[in-house]
Amino acid sequence: MERPTSDVGIVLYWLPLGAGGWFVRLNGRVYEAIHARMERRPPLDLYHSALEVRLPEGRFVVENSWPIPDAEGASRGVAVEGPVISRRIARFRLFRYEVRRWRGGVIADVDDAVAGPQRVSDDPQQARRLLDLVDALPRPTWGRDEFGAGEMWNSNSVISWLLARAGLPVHTIGPPPGGRAPGWHAGLIVAGGVPVGDGTREDDRSIAPPDGWTAVSR
Q1: Can you tell me the mean pLDDT for 65-83?
Q2: Cα 200 to Cα 204: distance, rounded to the nearest angstrom
Q3: How does 164-197 read in b/e, with b if 16+ C-beta sit within 10 Å?
Q4: CA-closest candidate to residue 116, choices 65, 166, 159, 161
Q5: How far apart are CA 144 and CA 148, in angstroms?
Q6: Which of 2, 34, 42, 64 is the most buried (most CB within 10 A)?
Q7: Of the candidates 187, 37, 16, 21, which has an alpha carbon nearest to the alpha carbon of residue 110?
Q8: For every residue of 97-116, which 3-state class applies, written as one string?
């Protein structure tokens, strides 16, 4: 796949869910088949999103990943970790996800990306703001709707939250035609400060991690 050549900007990649791995791909198809049947519509292709942030001082990959491959998070620029399924079992690495701000990093299966790469900003201030915002990410439980947003929080929620908080026109950004990105809407709702499940607004309360969770040093 041709890579963007400009030194500055934010680039979005749409990766088919489960690219390079049959287990995730199969489970994604089952998940989408069930939802399509419940919503009385044809099944759609599912996508996972990731970003490249390009600045004169370097190129950074921003991506949410689960499962965590090993304990060497510093080598991947891990900035944030959070629980998967349940906080009670998150002490085990298998049940934690990580968000990377990886200088010079790689996006797994990037050659399988569809309809892109898409340059969504060429503003260096937006690019730097997005990188800074990684430390402020909410850390809800992956796969659950703890914000009452109407869908689960996952990797797409992380990317849409970052883009929205960085000031990008997220209403013009979406998955390729014929596809959808589960969790994308949840990130936009939380980023926009709309009412959440307990009646408060996300902007009115701290987004510090739950007890026992902290940002990981760069």
Answers
A1: 94
A2: 7
A3: bbbebebeebebbeebbbbbbbbbbbbbeeeebe
A4: 159
A5: 9
A6: 64
A7: 16
A8: EEEEEEECCCCCCHHHCEEE
The phi and psi torsions of 119 (rounded to 5 degrees) equal: -80, 115
Alpha carbon distance 143, 152 (integer Å): 5
Are 98 and 134 spatial neighbours (Cβ–Cβ below 8 Å)?
Answer: no
Fill in the amino acid letter for 139: R
7's tokens: 């030194």
Q: The tokens 């304990």 sit on which residue?
A: 71
Beta strands 58-65 and 96-103 are: antiparallel
**CA 25 – CA 109 distance, rounded (Å):** 13
CA 165, chain centre distance (Å): 13
Q: What is the pLDDT of residues 85-125, one digit of tens each?
A: 999 999 999 999 999 999 999 998 888 899 879 999 999 99
From the list 151, 115, 153, 132, the residue with the least C-alpha distance to 12 is 115
Q: What is the DSSP string of 136-162?
A: G-----BTS-TT-SSS---HHHHHHHH
Note whether 13 and 49 are within 8 A (CB).
yes
Q: How many CA atoms lie within 13 A of 138 on its CB side?
A: 28
- Residue count of the chain, please give it: 218
Question: Considering the entire predicted model, what is its pTM?
Answer: 0.80
CA-wise closest residue to 29 among 42, 41, 17: 17
